[in-house]
Design brief:
The protein is α+β, with helices and mostly antiparallel strands. A hairpin with a 2-residue loop joins strand 5 and strand 6. Helix 3 crosses helix 4 and helix 5 packs across helix 9.
Length: 310
């Protein structure tokens, strides 16, 4: 039924065009984003054709005998057009599994795309996973604000916002990525002993490739110094805060609250703060999620499934 081929670089335009017009694809799944760290992963992305027309995509990488969808991405899974039907996606999974087995692949680890990122209902793959006997391997809980029906901020967040107003903090879109990265790296090193997932040169490259999708918003004090910033990933349905960080001055004076207040004015269905979990979801950072929920956010799951090809 399906013709299945592996992605090759000559298919980039076709791949990206399909992502752009799909019902559940985002710019993270375009090749310009996926391939910036291609040296870290063995790409094994698949393209599915039905009657010689591209029907679906699967961003993926291979590690030993396991197919991941995709280890370098926040989410992945089968990318579908609006014409995809449940029965066809079931058939796609069956044929894909046979194709993978023939090539010595034993296991599939599947990162589902949270429903907020889809422009149309797109959970045919979740049903197919159930039929494959997939088990939930990891579940992260993110905090998301429904911008069309927002909840009230908690009092502590409103108090912080008033501090920012008293200090005349200025919020604006910025290109000063390096300055923000210095604040971010310092905070992550002091608090957790880690570095950002992206190096500054990697983020600069991605921002140059996707200027409409990656934005930095910052807060400045009266002297003009940056005291906080939020780096956004903007998709059709979701504004996602990829990185949030502030100096000690910014933390003391509600700078993050001031930025978020401005961002929540944007025209989008959802604002997603990202997950507050570690260890595949078995540890919840209660302090972090309490802060995010204070802005009126509530839970959205980022799920990872696994099944064996028998």
């Amino acid at each position: 039924m399906f013709d299945i081929i592996r992605y090759t670089a000559d298919k980039e335009t076709e791949w990206d065009s399909f992502i752009e017009h799909s019902k559940n694809g985002t710019f993270l799944l375009k090749r310009g984003y996926m391939d910036y760290h291609s040296y870290r992963f063995s790409d094994h992305s698949l393209m599915f054709y039905l009657k010689k027309k591209l029907y679906a995509l699967l961003p993926a990488n291979l590690d030993d005998c396991t197919l991941y969808t995709h280890q370098g991405l926040t989410y992945g899974g089968v990318i579908m057009s609006e014409q995809c039907t449940t029965e066809n996606i079931l058939n796609l999974f069956c044929e894909m599994n046979e194709w993978l087995k023939e090539r010595g692949i034993h296991t599939v680890v599947y990162k589902a795309i949270p429903h907020i990122y889809s422009t149309q209902p797109s959970e045919e793959d979740l049903y197919a996973l159930f039929r494959c006997g997939a088990q939930l391997k990891a579940r992260g809980i993110s905090t998301c604000i429904d911008l069309h029906n927002p909840l009230k901020w908690r009092q502590n967040r409103r108090t912080a916002l008033n501090k920012a107003k008293d200090k005349y903090i200025i919020v604006e879109k910025s290109d000063q990525l390096e300055t923000f990265w210095q604040i971010l790296e310092k905070n992550l090193a002091q608090a957790h002993g880690i570095q950002p997932v992206h190096r500054i040169d990697e983020m600069q490259l991605l921002k140059s490739r996707f200027p409409e999708n990656i934005e930095l918003w910052t807060a400045r004090n009266l002297e003009g110094s940056m005291i906080a910033g939020i780096l956004l990933y903007i998709t059709k349905n979701v504004i996602h805060s990829q990185y949030i960080s502030a100096t000690d001055e910014g933390k003391a004076n509600g700078a993050i609250d001031a930025i978020i207040q401005e961002l929540l004015k944007k025209d989008s269905p959802y604002f997603d703060f990202g997950i507050s979990t570690e260890q595949n979801g078995n540890y919840l950072n209660s302090k972090l999620i309490f802060q995010k929920e204070g802005f009126g956010g509530r839970g959205i799951c980022y799920d990872i499934y696994e099944y064996t090809l028998s």
